[in-house]
Design a protein that fits this description.
With 230 residues, the chain is mainly α. It is 71% helix and 0% strand. It has 11 helices and no strands. The radius of gyration is 24 Å and the shape is globular.
Length: 230
């Protein structure tokens, strides 16, 4: 039979309070809520789209009340922005540091950029955000403006830096960098759309291998960027 001291737990310790453990659990639970809400929101936004996702559904999936959701995120738009920031936009500082310290050739840098994007975004749940924006951006100007500012523009800036580096080092021949960046972006968008939508139309006998696709695309682009060098 357990001793009395074990049954009463913390009460036999100086300054102990039976409610301390409960309070600590509540505090941990409170700290976990934003992350749980963002996970639930990401899943629902990808599954149902922005318009069809309701705040109460996100709260229910996270195991909290709708009121609790709005304590952290005052609107569905703010919730979506937080999802984008947590899963994509918040990573650009780290990515820029990586590329600033990159010591390989510009060709290696470009291929690394494409593979890293797939592994860190494309192959994750966050890739569904791209599909959502393709289908719904025009219907939600505030959301579209945020995505453009926090994801599109930083991504384009980073990619432009890579191509400019190649040109300045005599590794690339790129007459129009501002438009050449879309030659890199477009195939990556296709890969995401294939994952979330178009893949249903691809014969099961001929699936697209994402890593082979990215490497093949990178090599094709590099043949163009590197041609014509003196």
């Amino acid at each position: 039979m357990p001793s009395l001291s074990k049954l009463i737990g913390r009460q036999d310790k100086p300054g102990g309070d039976p409610g301390d453990g409960v309070q600590a659990k509540r505090e941990r639970r409170k700290e976990a809520r934003p992350g749980e809400l963002l996970d639930a929101a990401l899943d629902l936004f990808v599954e149902k789209g922005f318009a069809a996702t309701r705040a109460e559904e996100v709260a229910a999936r996270a195991g909290v009340s709708k009121g609790t959701l709005f304590l952290y995120f005052p609107s569905k738009e703010e919730l979506f922005k937080a999802v984008v920031r947590e899963n994509i936009a918040g990573r650009f500082a780290e990515w820029n540091q990586e590329f600033a310290a990159f010591e390989g050739s510009s060709a290696e840098m470009l291929e690394f950029f494409m593979l890293a994007w797939w592994e860190r975004i494309g192959a994750t749940r966050a890739s569904g955000i791209t599909k959502l924006m393709v289908s719904e951006a025009q219907n939600f100007p505030e959301v579209a403006a945020y995505y453009q500012r926090e994801v599109i523009l930083p991504g384009q800036t980073l990619l432009r830096r890579i191509l400019q580096r190649g040109v300045e080092r005599g590794e690339f021949q790129v007459p129009d960098i501002d438009h050449a960046i879309y030659a890199v972006i477009a195939p990556m968008i296709f890969l995401v759309m294939n994952k979330h939508s178009l893949g249903a139309c691809v014969p099961c006998s001929d699936p697209i291998d994402p890593l082979r696709y990215v490497r093949a695309t990178a090599q094709t682009l590099l043949q163009g960027f590197c041609s014509g060098r003196s």
